[in-house]
Predict the 3D structure of the following.
Amino acid sequence: MNNISQKIINKIKKEQIKPLPKWRILLKRALIWVLFIFTLIIGAIFFSFILFQINEVDFRLYPYFNTSIPHFFIISIPYLWILIFFALTYISYIDFKHTGKGYKYPLIIILGANLILSGILGWGIYKSNFPDRVYSEFQHRYPMMTPRIFFHHRPWHQPDRGFLAGRIIEIDDGENPELMEFQDFYQKIWIIEMKQAKIMHKIKLENGFEIKMIGRATSPNTFKAYLIVPWHKNEFKMSGRTMKMPPPFY
Amino acid sequence: MQEYSHLTDEELAEKAISDSDALYELFHRYEKKLKNYILKISYLSVPCSEDILQETFIKIYKNLSAFETSLKFSSWIYRVTHNETINYLRKNKKHLEIASTENEEQIDYLNLFKNSLEIEEKFITREIKTKVREIIKNMPLKYREVIILKYIEDKSYDEISDILQKPIGTISALIYRAKKYFKQIAIKENLHQLI
């Protein structure tokens, strides 16, 4: 028996190599499934936030950006979240491939099934208002950072082009306030002239309220607002009235 | 030493966890086949292929409890061998000891002609054999491995899918492309009689 097989048997005996215990193998298999389900759920949560963010895009404002609806949609969607969602879907595909017979299924089937599953689960999570509640909680704890994290805010941070978003720090009292102190989402303080501004839906502007504005930067820290809209779409939905948009200013 | 030759691979695998005679029988059954398989896909020297085989057998023994009966034992052992070979090739990219022509000649590609290209044995000259070996040797690994498994190891699509851990559709596509690739090179090499 002077062959490789015998040499290996001798080596196994000499080095006292033992087979891995069954429980360790079962645990490894279970962990792969747990990882797969975990990434699927996280992906679904991300998908629910994407729906939440897309729902917040106010398409009635597109004419002010001097663009078309599709382009406005493209510049408003949360790329980073979508990217993370696809990355998670891909990770769940890798996890699934490592399950017992996962390799038998083609990429397109696994990816498609993962996308559909995350989509359905994400839709359910979105409908349960989970993203709204998380947003409110974050907004309460980290007021300046939250909109930057949760929304694709860049289209609204172009003061030179007439777009500005942030939070009211101090606003004149009275029926028709003319000035307010305002902090954009990058913490810069602005003085906002709002004498000529149309406040959408006649919302009562208060300190701490998050808004987006269309207007004109008149100096490095003053901005003349023509149109003021709540940052969070739900805030004017709640008033239960139909909003009529004024025509663009250009 | 107990007589185990009447047992199936799967039965042996179950016994081999605690019985070294059964383990020997199991290894002995696959020793030659797997060594040749390693040589065919890697073109490594015999000592290198034996090193890989040794590592493979130890891995097989360690993971015997992981063997699922839903899979054929031969597919599983080929899968582990394949993975070990690929890992070895990746790790030792820079210092590979490639087999001499002498070693290569141990590999018999006759099945390739018989099964896929349907040519009579008498027409296969030594020169043709050498040329075919060269074509297969220079094929991308993804084509070489499916060609070897299908036409030399005589594995079914399902078995190849289990060995390479790829969907059956992908295996069919790879075999189709590998044959196409082979034919293109064969035409360039003036091996018209094979096509």
The first helix of chain A runs from residue 4 to 14. The first strand of chain A starts at residue 163 and ends at 171. The CA atoms of residues 4 and 10 of chain A lie 10 Å apart.
